[in-house]
Amino acid sequence: RMDTKRQKSREIDKQIAQHERQMKKESVLLMLGPGGSGKSTFCKQLKILHLFGFSDAEKEKFRYVVHLNLINAICVLLEAAFNNGVLQPSKNEEGTSDPYEMGNKILAKFRGKIYKQGGFVKDEQDYSQPEELSIEGAYLKVWKNLDSQIGANFQQIWSDPKIKKIYSEQSKYGISGIIDDSAAYYLNSINRISTDKYVPNEIDILRARIKTTSVVETTFEWEGSRFRVVDVGGQRGERKKWLPLFSGVTAIIFCVGLSDYDVAMEENRSQNRMKDALDVFKQIANNPTLEKTPIILFLNKEDLFKEKLSTSDLSVCFPDYKGGANYQKAIAFIKKKFEAVNPQKKLFIETTVATDTKVITSVWNSVRELTLGK
């Protein structure tokens, strides 16, 4: 019996030693940054690159997330249109083909309200009750009844030049930071998305927006090394969950949305998103617990940033910026802003487009070499 006990003890010791060796080989990457900066999108890319992508069951769930993103985009545009007097009752008698009537029909179905006599009033007669869906560490209220007829109604609204004008002038109409970056992508794909046989492709899934409300881990092995990427919500209410995760981290990946320089936070409309990102980054870069932990700064949404520079000057966020629409000057200025929060801290900066798999493949190779000390 003693021999059996000793043998079991040796086996347990062996397992513990093996686990410790594996843990030493494991690189733990903690994804931090404000909400909507691209952390979860990066984790989805790693799943595509290293974990065989998404199962049929996961795609079925993302179908409803895409529908939710599309519904939210249409409703935000309609609310802005009504609030700003862009949509007015038609004098003809075309019924629901009139954008004003159609807009109210959509808001009644998905928001339980209509616009009447200068304001929104409750109208739940045709309200469609959403269902709860658990996905990616979040619980969402989604609709599972989006069909081609509703899609045709959405298409009518999106085809209206007045609605497109609201989308192109988001700051003017007060929806910047409320409507998601991927809204136009889904709105331009209404007919494809609203069919009964619709199955989301990888790009649809990468662009799908879910607010992370818990800690989500992506673990995989690559060329003999084990990686654990930890994603945690970036909204202000979620940041209290960050501190307990600092221990044992190999590196911090901090995401910033470059195109957020003229966007207000959804949680606090008086606060600029990029300034908030800079404030949060300052806290992370100067945290004593992370003194020896390298930080990789992802300046994400480079594509949207390049587009926006020609119409919105970076000086709206940083009055001391004088480089105009020059991309190289603008990106260099932003890099200096983040480097200045702690000049002694070793900082590795990558400009990225989290929705572009080719870009992320290249970026991931750089991250892997850094974390493995190659």
How does this structure look, described?
- There is one protein chain.
- This protein has helices at 2-25, 39-50, 56-83, 99-111, 148-158, 161-168, 183-187, 190-193, 202-207, 273-285, 302-309, 327-339, 357-371, and strands at 26-32, 113-116, 119-122, 131-135, 138-142, 216-222, 225-231, 251-257, 295-300, 347-351.
- By secondary structure, the protein is an alpha/beta fold.
- The strands form three sheets. Strands 6-7-1-8-9-10 form a six-stranded mixed β-sheet, with helices on both faces.
- A hairpin with a 2-residue loop joins strand 2 and strand 3 (119-122).
- The longest helix has 28 residues, at 56-83.
- It is globular, with a radius of gyration of 24 Å.
- The protein starts with a helix and ends with a helix.
- The mean pLDDT is 87.
Which short descriptors sum up this protein?
6-stranded mixed beta sheet, 374 residues, alpha/beta, single chain, two-stranded antiparallel ribbon
Please sum up the structure shown.
Helix content is 43%, strand content 15%.
- Arithmetic mean of pLDDT: 87
The succession of helices and strands, N to C, reads HEHHHEEEEHHHHHEEEHEHHEH
- Low-confidence segments: none
What structural class results from the helix and strand content? Answer: alpha/beta
The radius of gyration over CA amounts to 24 Å
Strand order of the largest sheet: 6-7-1-8-9-10
Q: How many helix segments?
A: 13
**What global shape is seen?**
globular
Beginning-to-end CA distance, first to last residue = 49 Å
Share in helix: 40-55%
Task: Please provide the count of β strands.
Answer: 10
Strand content: 15-25%
| Major beta-sheet overview | 6 strands, mixed
